[in-house]
Amino acid sequence: MRSAAFLVMFLLFVQFVPFASAVTVGEADDAVAHAESDLGSAFAAVAEAEAAGADVSVLLAKLDVAGGFLSDAYVALKAGDYENAFSFAVACSDAVDGVAADAALLKLDAEEARAGSFVWAVVGSSVGLVLLVAFGLLGWRLLRKWYFKRVLDMRPEVGGVAD
Amino acid sequence: MNFGDVKLLYLASCLVLGVIILLPTVMQVISFPKGEVFSELWLLGPGRMAEGYPFNVFAGLPYKVYLGVGNHLGELAYYRVCVKLRNQSEPLPNSTAGVPSPLEPFYEYRLFLVDNATWEREVSFSFERVAFDGNVCRVGGLVIDGHFVAVDKVAVWDAERSGFFVQLFFELWLYDADSSEFVFHNRSVNLWLNVTRGL
User: Complex ipTM, two decimals?
Assistant: First the structure.
């Protein structure tokens, strides 16, 4: 009798106690918001590196993966699957871990490369201009000489007629 | 050709040569205007053409379309495509005011595109838990790209067009790094679907 009462109590407990997930709504929400922020920050860093002229294709692949995880996290969150939402959000944050730092390094490299290229361009242009002025003056002298020689050669000569 | 003309021609030649020599340096200092900046959003039918779009849809049967985005913003962009479903009485995005539909997206895609890059993917969907009751059709869920999502949408019989119409639409949002949030990019494409009773 006692065991039967215990069994009934147990069944009632199982029936009426809601399923207790290991992850709560709040935790899942926080994880998704955190992942959203991480992905946004990573994107901003990668965008800056790309604008500086860096090759960010590897980082973009990581952002794509992270974006997929975040989309899945939102779908799971809407479906009330908080555990999966949490897992996908954490996977998103993990996928972009270190991306901002890598982007900052790439940006620095790209800026240095650009500065170096600018210095070479300035040096090249300066040398080119000096050479242009030097050869320009020389060329001008030669041209003038050639021109006057040609004009003098074209001068009509007065020939005497022998009677 | 007199001497003055020769002098002028020589000076002009030197000037042109000087400009050519300076060009690599000038190019690095001056930034040229980007031209028109915009993004593209498109929807193609199952044959990847602007034809053959699904229209009469049956519960449980898969349908597919192709969704594409193109970036011509002159810089790297982070897009979010929100997938929404509405019935005839619910609001669409207002392109004149640049306002998105207030409906919650039931699915989304996130993508990162460099300038002049495009993204296109197949979107497969099927209507699930569809129930008809008189002049009302209730769509309980959608399976999109293999994910089940609850939508609970009610479509009322449209006597004029003879059907239970719902509209699947895609909104393009763009991430703004300054405000750290997505803003509606005023681009949307949609697909009218007539939810039809079983075969």
Answer: 0.85
